[in-house]
Amino acid sequence: MDTVTRRKFLKLTSGAVAVGAAAPLLSIDQIAQAAIDRPLPAGTPILVVVTLYGGNDGLNTVVPYTDPLYYSSRPEISYKADQVLPLDAELALNPAMKGLKTLWDQKKVAIVRGVGYPNPDHSHFSSMAKWQTASPEKHINTGWLGRWVDSQSEDPMLAISLGSVLPPMLAGAKRSGSALPLGGLVIPKGTLANQCAQLSKPSNKDSKLMAAAATSMRNLFSVSTNVQPVLKAPAPVDPDLPTTNGGNAGGDSNLAQQLDVVAKLIAAGSPTKVWSVSLGGFDTHANEANAQAELLGVVSDSLTRFMGQLKSTTRSNDVTIMVYSEFGRRVVGNGSQGTDHGTSGPMFVIGNKVKGGFYGEQPSLKNLYKNDLAVTTDFRDVYATVIEKILKSPIEPTLGKWSGRINFL
Amino acid sequence: MDATRLEISRLYHRFGFGPRPGEYAKALVSGVAATRTAALTVPAVDAGAATVVEPAITDLGKRPAANSKEIVPFAIALRFQTQQMVVWWLDRMAASDHGLTERMTWFWHGHWATSVDKLNYALPMFKQNKTLRATCLGNFATMTKAMLNDGALQFWLDGQDNTLKAPNENLGRELMELFTLGVGRYSEDDVKSISRALTGYQVERSNGTVTINQARRDKNPVTLLGTTAVFTGDTLADFLVARDDSAQFVAERLWYRFISSTEDMPATFAAKKAFAARDISAAVTAMANDSVMRDEKFAMVKSPVEWFISACRALELTPSQLKTPAQMINFLEKLGQVPFYPPNVGGWPAGEAWLSSATAQYRITFATWLIKQSELRVLKSLTPAQRLMQSADWLGVAEWSPRTKNALRDAQADPAQFALLALCSPEYIVSA
């Protein structure tokens, strides 16, 4: 079940995909300072990318609950029609995704069906690299949002990933997005600070990796230490949720924590247009039902809570969330109450400005391709739409010539 | 940079876990060739490693039901055994007189990356560790056969769920992609075939005992990589390992973990040819003799465990004696690397992944904690001026940069501060 666990997957992927430029690491203070000095202009669209590592089972996320083939293909791990949360006469959400269902009812959720790329790869590492580089044909070293960062004027606050390791998606050729460790950094003080500052000065004797080691320590000290109030303040409160013990009700998870930090920084006015968060554990080869439902519950609850938190800020209409995984899973269960690696899966796009509804064709359970679902939508159609409509940028520097678009914004 | 200092530094830090006080200076006198031969010649008995007492890791049996009376002692015993096992291995790394065996065991642990996290029993992981140690410099086909019969690996990749009626592809795919051939060197049809060939394994989870259930085995011939046959685990291992792609792949993995995680492996890298008979020891020897060992281009970042153990050796500390071992494991966890807990089946990352401001901060805290527990014998036996002069030899660092020398000079009157800066310097975090 958890051979690909949690966010640490990132580290492997970033090891396999050479990162073009060294990733700057930000401290909370730097972002807080930037938020105060030069806040993101009001009304600027913000993209939040949610990566689900391990290969999320799309058929048990958006369930074809009236298709007899769904039940005959995976008798041990199919959801009964009376368990799921119907979206229309054919498709329903996993029972654990009640929060997302509410947002769907409010027409804030676009579900893009059958998303993938040509010649699907069944390796976690290769497939995730294809999604993150947006280059399914050829292995390249830059990520799609990294190339977008390259095309913008230099600003370490522009694109930020939560966690101490940068996903390849944000690695550019010249510049990269930044990484923000969860919980922020504790900065040494006094004599030790001076000595460490001395130790981390650049040296022309440094190899590339030694220079990177020096930079990583220098970044600890290159920040103003007296601007903490933004992050020490509690996260924005969702006016619609009851509170317990002074905080919002709802589960706590690493994804929720990441989104908490993102909500705080968006509320504070961080000059950041792209945020990246993630959740791992979706590699459900065995005993899938409970494991996946639990994870989807975390996704649904965390995103609902995040959307709620944004309501108390001035930017709730500016934020769009995009959710994806490296592949879906095999249609037929594998007999271990689980599923093996598959191909296409649904993507979610969520936000107040999103035109809720279904996009792309639902892959047929009858006409499988080598036992796998067909790919009916290329992920680059979604990326291109996001780049144009949210990041307000020409797509060519990021995706090359790409004509496909989806009308969800 | 002095080529002799560089090569000897690499021999200590990459083919072992760093020098003990005095070893590097002595090696400089004996020269590169003698140091290399010594590093590659595994002694019959390692007196240092032999001092480490093996923990009693027992079969804890079936997990009691949740909320039962028996679950509490069970959970305590499980946690205790797992911690004992982690500490035992760290002690072996720190105490070995000869570093190569533990270093190769460590390499293969990251290769056949299995985590106790999913298994939730220490004993199968303990057995796997012994298997890896026994085969770490032997024949790769022998190792692969042993790993297919390893309960921890089988359970980790759902091998026990892979049956004639319901094939599960987890183990079959990773066996080709991550363990023997490398990604893209097989087709999706091969994944389906190999998974059928691997059906029937059963694992006793609590102790890792592997058996074959013939009724669950798919005994029909399969076509794998162009060959149609009925495979057993052993013939399958031989078949995969004999492929040219396997030599290429193992050479690539050795390159990535010992020479460079950032530069591509050149076609001339000697380890591949030397692996013709699938003799791991021959490949490692060829790698240590290759001219890339003298090329400044191929720096490597020490992983957190490598950095920690080399610091223990320099500071003359024993991991199990630290206060407390749980705190030590907590530091390693913050740095992102605890033995027996790889993040996923692909093993740990390498290179810049270990160089973030977060790890810089935890490294400083961890090193401060370690230094407090060391007598700092070496530094205290030197005058302040000598400290600066001799510290590179103490730690097996090829060369301090002028930047680091300046920082160390400022702290040379204070052994603890001096040690902290030296251990957290770019020259010590990265193997030049």
Structure report:
The complex is a heterodimer of chains A (409) and B (432). Chain A is of the alpha/beta class. Chain A has a single domain, classed as Alkaline Phosphatase, subunit A, CATH 3.40.720.10. In chain A, the strands form 3 sheets. In chain A, strands 1, 5, 6, 7, 10, 11, 12, 13 and 14 form a 9-stranded mixed sheet that branches. In chain A, strand 8 and strand 9 form a beta hairpin. Chain A is globular, with a radius of gyration of 21 Å. The N terminus of chain A is likely disordered. Chain B is mainly alpha-helical and 432 residues long. Helix content of chain B is 56%, strand content 4%. Chain B is built from 24 helices and 6 strands. In chain B, the strands form 3 sheets. In chain B, strands 1-2 form a two-stranded antiparallel sheet. In chain B, strands 3-4 form a two-stranded antiparallel sheet. A two-stranded antiparallel ribbon of chain B has the order 5-6. The longest helix of chain B has 25 residues. The model of chain B has no long low-confidence stretch (mean pLDDT 95). Chains A and B meet through helix 1, helix 5, helix 7 and helix 8 of A and helix 11, strand 5, helix 19, helix 22 and helix 23 of B.
Which descriptors would you attach to this protein?
heterodimer; A: 409 residues; alpha/beta; nine-stranded mixed sheet; three-stranded antiparallel sheet; B: 432 residues; mainly alpha; two-stranded antiparallel sheet; 56% helix; 4% strand
Could you give a short account of the major beta sheet of chain A?
Answer: 9 strands, mixed
Total strand segments of chain A: 14
Assign the CATH class of chain A.
Answer: Alpha Beta
CATH fold node name of chain A: Alkaline Phosphatase, subunit A
- Count of helix runs of chain B: 24
Q: Report the mean per-residue pLDDT of chain B as an integer.
A: 95
CATH architecture of chain A: 3-Layer(aba) Sandwich
User: What does the overall shape of chain A look like?
Assistant: globular
Oligomer: heterodimer
Low-confidence regions of chain B: none
Strand content of chain A: 5-15%
Number of helices of chain A: 13
Q: Give the overall shape of chain B.
A: globular
- Structural class designation of chain A: alpha/beta
User: What is the radius of gyration of chain A?
Assistant: 21 Å
**Secondary-structure element series of chain A:** HHEEHEEHEHHEEHHHEEHEHEEEEHH
Percentage of residues assigned to helices of chain B = 55-70%
Cα separation of the termini of chain B: 10 Å
Number of strands of chain B: 6
- Low-pLDDT stretches of chain A are 1-22, 222-231, 239-253
Q: What percentage of amino acids of chain B are in beta strands?
A: under 5%
